[in-house]
Amino acid sequence: MIISLSGKISTELPVHATAEKWFHIMTKKLHHIQHVAGKIHGAKLHQGDDWHVNDSVKHWTYTLDGKTVTCLETIESVDEEKKRIAFKLFGEAIDDKYKVFNITFEAIEKDGGSAAVKWSIEYEKVSEEVHAPYGYLELYDHVTRDVDVHLLEGEKVSANKN
């Protein structure tokens, strides 16, 4: 029996904020997510001067499967038209388990003005004993809900000012 060490998993979650607002926070205010997502405990620039350029490296601290862990992240590519961002994760929480760990974020406009956020993870495990990274999909589910509430609160504040 051959067991594959590589795989791709994804989740698509309906959100209340627009795809445009989601893409904006991910491309222009990524550093802000640590302040609104309960399972993200901290984030800082590890290398570089700008959070939103491909050669910068960010250091993230977060809760995964009940444990506080850290990793490093870089932006691989940004597709403005498709509202898609590809990230590469590596470092402490990743390297012991995965040779490859790439995440794709996509803000999707749906019919009728609704939106969804899709997270996809492409990975290659270092051995058969390593589990597929479903804990990360759960983490992104929590982050998506927290950020969506934050984006909606921002809309309410803007509406109250007018």
Task: Please give a structural write-up.
- This is Bet v I/Major latex protein domain-containing protein.
- Belongs to the MLP family.
- One of its GO terms (biological process) is defense response.
- It comes from Phaseolus vulgaris.
- The chain is α+β, with helices and mostly antiparallel strands and 162 residues long.
- It has one domain: START domain (Alpha-D-Glucose-1,6-Bisphosphate, Chain A, domain 4, 2-Layer Sandwich), CATH 3.30.530.20.
- The protein contains 4 helices and 7 strands.
- The chain has a 7-stranded antiparallel β-sheet with strand order 1-7-6-5-4-3-2.
- β3 and β4 form a beta hairpin.
- The chain is globular.
Topology:
Blueprint: E1 6-15, H1 19-28, H2 33-36, E2 40-47, E3 57-64, E4 67-79, E5 84-90, H3 92-95, E6 98-109, E7 115-125, H4 134-161
Beta-strand residue percentage: 35-45%
Distance between the termini: 64 Å
Structural domain tally: 1
The helix content, as a percent range, equals: 25-40%
Regarding CATH, which class?
Alpha Beta
Order of helices and strands: EHHEEEEHEEH
InterPro entries: Bet_v_I/MLP (IPR000916), MLP-like (IPR052006), START-like_dom_sf (IPR023393)
Domain Bet v I/Major latex protein: 4-154
Pfam family, one: Bet_v_1
Organism: Phaseolus vulgaris (Kidney bean)
